[in-house]
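Quick log. Single chain, no ligands specified.
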Amino acid sequence: MLYNAALLPVRAASVVFGVWPRGTPEAELARDQRLARRLPSVVPGSLWIHGASVGEARIIGALAKEIRRRRPGQPLAVSSVTTTGHAQLPKPPAIDAAFFLPLDFPSVQRRAFDVIAPSMIVLVETELWPNLLAEARRRRVPVVIVNGRLAPERLTRYRRLSGLYGPLLCGIDAIGAAGRDETARFLALGVSERAVHVLGNLKFDLPAPDDDPAVIRARSGLAPDRPVVVAGSTGDGEDRLVLDAFSTARRDVPDLLLLLAPRHPERFASAAEEAARRGLFVSRVSGGAAAADVDVLLVDTIGQLAALYALAGSAFVGGSLVPVGGHNLLEPLAAGVPVLFGPHTHHVAEIAAELQRTGAGLRVENADALGRAWAELATQPDERARRVALGREFLAANRGALGRAADLVLAVWDRSRSVGLA
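-> predicted structure:
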């Protein structure tokens, strides 16, 4: 009740949102889906898989494919919160329907459940929407979390709001945790040991893009032998540090090119301006083939970074030189590229620690260290090859979470159906 009372101003704003003048057809559809007005037609009893944004959308695609392989006739509906995530969701016929998650208001969630009529909900990572979970409980729809993650700061927030989140978490049928640290945090919130299963991180099982690096180079206008480094998913304030590192690396590798991929589209322009202020020639991926003398190629598109990593001699994953907590450290490894990351990795702590321990990844403490590491890997092919091999071994040793997640989802789903039939 307190949660919904706090949402009253937002609900009032949504009324205005609902009658706002029309934009593009796509924006209008997104608005209507968020208000549960124009959701796609779905076969009753669908399995509904939800994730917030781009990273979760890739997991949704892999999990949906695995479930469809095991249960070919099972209807699947998928959703996301963000526009960029929605663009990366699998589309029919891989699934039956894809849509934006309706806003977490009681009446909106009731309309959504009336239309989707799910037999089960699978939440990728830790997407805890109180009214969605409450409506699922009212309708006796089982809920499973896969790739469950709980960062330390989120644990603190959930503890502070334990009156809200404690019952929600304890009402979830099963939680497939991504690692041991996450398992301990879920248990610390009062979740039963019987409900928590350590499945591993599903991102280890995501396939590498099948794009040919030589074709990508030609399409981007890059010479076959030009050395490239990537800075992916950079955070606010991090582009400046990455460009400092690039300047350091260029002292030893003058023809080095930087592929710079800010995490959020609203920062594309500022990243380009930061590079231009330094006298660097900037091109954009969306503009087609770059000129031969380009210094920085700005990745201003969504969904291409995983494939572009394959062009690099080494890749830095952002959100880690600034205190964001780090992003997906596995994508460069899957592309066969050594991965570097900064000191702030609390969102990916277990993976970062294992990458350091095995030598499959390299932690850099600051921009100067990043620049030196980029230069060393560009000029020392044997060291680069060693780290690439260690990266492949690291990925191979940790795969299998996708199958375990599908096992858990289908076991809970089958159990709930047998109870319903009884």
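The CA atoms of residues 286 and 301 lie 6 Å apart.
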